[in-house]
Fold:
Amino acid sequence: MKLLCLDVPQPGAAMEKYAPHMQAEVRHTWKAYKGGLVRDIYFRQDRPGVAIIAEADSVEAAKATLMEFPLAKAGLIGWDVIPLGAFANWELLFATSNA
Structure:
């Protein structure tokens, strides 16, 4: 299952609180990438943070794995996990009109 995962800063989180965890966060993300959870990762342009395209068996499985990231374990971030599906409306472009 393909998922869009958006980090959610928790109350009181600030960049200076992230700093001690960032090296471990990057290492953990690399392991998640090599392990197949993280397929793509992007910096958000609207605020500090990331958007991850992930692959997991379920939303719950992805959330459980994402909560093992060092920033999540430190209580600094949570995750919104949104399941994605194939865009099936392409057929509308080729539909014949009965008008």
